[in-house]
Backbone:
């Protein structure tokens, strides 16, 4: 156990177990209210899964949108999220995420010093569903000088290992071949960080200003109770940290515990990109004292490739974005056939990788492969690989499609017919089979300089051809500890456990099986962290308007539901 900031003690007002954005928001909110706070991180690096994420937040009807004159409403957002969630989930959690999301956003901006870029034109993921908008619900952190703000603490903050560029810049530049690498190197030398690392660094800076203790190498093992109230945490080492007012569980998901993942998740998880410390510690701690468990079938699914990247010494997956969304690429399954719109959002595309071929007792579309031609490689590159370099092990190369098919063990006639049909319509800007390039979201991730009519579509014409394996991956699991609308952990009889709160991937997700848009992970996670901090501090917020209502247990006035 190593204190990287603050005063060492065996007792604090608030004990936060975990250090992702939900954990840090809870701690920062309580610290702003004058509470003494300690953040206990299991690994040697602060930031959790949030630090290696894009750092974006999906917050409906936010003040940035209103100031920009963009029309939105919580009613429309509720209709949309319920459609995305496929009818699953609890209204209480959904209502909290929507009702208090903008309050959280204002709080971390005004009280904690977090600064965001407003992405006015980033479309919701499912443009085909009612209540979706073409922009205004997503924000991302600004570039942040972690070296200036945190000094030596910055060495203890987790990084994704990438250069400091914002997601807005990534979307504008598109392929990595177009990035201004000299400028990005200068940013890095100055100590600038971006995306998830910037977000957690800003929250950490707020905690440091308020004197919070930050501890690494501290794995929570057991909750201490007295008369049914949670009073502290026992660490794996046997050390005890007492909590005067409350404990917040925010230890991340359980995806790195293979036994848990195989027994709880609805589909086989082949790889993930989260820190290996996510092994379900918070879930177990809650269960040991009778905490209720819900929503464990789902994860933040994403199509990934395994390219040799590691995190904390363990192999991790690489999320595919432009590699499958750029014009001149397509995906095929084990039969050499396309099976989905390659440009759709990663969560829904990953679900298509989960289809099961019952007669053969194996996944129907996994492994899949992204196929590109040499023109694509020259124009965009593939991940870190560039034309003219030796072909890396994660790419399969062949001079013809037939030879590529042989190397992939897929039917050559099928692959050739698939590419021929795709090319026929791609040059016209059409995809009659899966509708690729029709939605605002598809076009947003395409290439506006594409010589063909649709920014999402282009033919594969020139050998050699390349293939990269794609499997069902995830940013992390997103179910577990059940809470009420104030982030209070519930027991098996739906009663709050006194003194115990939870937020983040440790908990049941507010959006259930849904992924409404960029930042739909961190938006509700930070909102629940904010509500936990406010509740612990005795400052339970009320929703500012009665037009939409408030979660049960959250406000004295009558709650008004919005029908789906």
Residues:
């Amino acid at each position: 156990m190593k204190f990287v900031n603050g005063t060492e003690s065996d007792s604090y007002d608030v004990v936060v177990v975990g250090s992702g954005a939900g954990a840090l928001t809870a701690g920062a909110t309580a610290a702003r209210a004058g509470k003494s706070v300690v953040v206990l991180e299991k690994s040697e690096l602060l930031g959790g899964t949030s630090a290696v994420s894009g750092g974006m937040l999906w917050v409906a009807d936010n003040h940035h949108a209103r100031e920009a004159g963009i029309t939105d409403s919580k009613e429309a957002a509720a209709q949309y999220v319920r459609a995305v969630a496929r009818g699953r989930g609890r209204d209480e959690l959904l209502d909290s995420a929507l009702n208090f999301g903008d309050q959280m956003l204002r709080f971390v901006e005004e009280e904690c010093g977090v600064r965001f870029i407003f992405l006015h034109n980033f479309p919701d993921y499912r443009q085909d569903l009612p209540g979706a908008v073409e922009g205004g619900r997503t924000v991302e952190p600004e570039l942040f000088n972690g070296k200036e703000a945190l000094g030596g603490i910055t060495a203890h903050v987790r990084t994704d290992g990438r250069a400091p560029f914002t997601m807005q810049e990534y979307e504008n530049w598109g392929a990595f071949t177009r990035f201004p690498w000299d400028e990005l190197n200068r940013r890095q030398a100055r100590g600038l960080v971006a995306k998830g690392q910037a977000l957690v660094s800003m929250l950490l800076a707020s905690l440091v200003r308020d004197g919070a203790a930050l501890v690494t190498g501290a794995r929570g093992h057991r909750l201490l109770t007295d008369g049914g109230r949670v009073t502290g945490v026992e660490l794996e080492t046997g050390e005890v940290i007492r909590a005067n007012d409350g404990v917040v569980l925010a230890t991340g998901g359980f995806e790195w515990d293979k036994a848990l993942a195989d027994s709880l998740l609805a589909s086989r998880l082949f790889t993930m990109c989260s820190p290996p410390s996510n092994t379900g510690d918070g879930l177990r701690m809650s269960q040991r004292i009778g905490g209720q468990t819900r929503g464990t079938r789902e994860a933040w699914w994403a199509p990934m490739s395994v390219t040799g990247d590691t995190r904390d010494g363990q192999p991790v997956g690489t999320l595919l974005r432009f590699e499958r969304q750029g014009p001149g690429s397509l995906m095929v399954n084990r039969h050499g056939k396309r099976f989905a719109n390659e440009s759709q959002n990663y969560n829904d595309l990953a679900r298509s990788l989960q289809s099961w071929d019952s007669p053969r007792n194996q996944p129907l579309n996994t492994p899949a492969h992204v196929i590109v031609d040499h023109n694509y490689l020259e124009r965009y590159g593939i991940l870190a690989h560039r034309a003219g370099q030796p072909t890396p092990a994660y790419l399969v190369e062949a001079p013809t499609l037939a030879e590529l098919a042989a190397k992939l063990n897929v039917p050559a006639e099928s692959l050739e017919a698939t590419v021929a049909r795709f090319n026929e319509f791609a040059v016209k800007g059409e995809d009659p089979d899966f509708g690729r390039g029709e939605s605002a979201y598809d076009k947003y991730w395409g290439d506006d300089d594409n010589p063909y009519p649709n920014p999402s579509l282009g033919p594969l014409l020139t050998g050699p051809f390349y293939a990269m394996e794609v499997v069902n991956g995830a940013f992390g699991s997103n179910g577990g500890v059940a809470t009420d609308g104030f982030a209070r952990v519930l027991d098996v009889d739906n009663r709050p456990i006194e003194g115990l709160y939870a937020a983040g991937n440790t908990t049941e997700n507010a959006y259930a099986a849904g992924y409404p848009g960029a930042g739909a992970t961190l938006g509700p996670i930070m909102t629940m962290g904010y509500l936990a901090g406010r509740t612990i501090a005795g400052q339970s917020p009320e929703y500012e308007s009665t037009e939409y209502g408030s979660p049960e247990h959250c406000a004295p006035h009558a709650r008004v539901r919005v029908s789906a």
In short: Confidence is low (pLDDT under 50) at residues 544-564. The radius of gyration is 23 Å. The longest helix spans residues 91-110. The chain is about 30% helix and 20% strand.
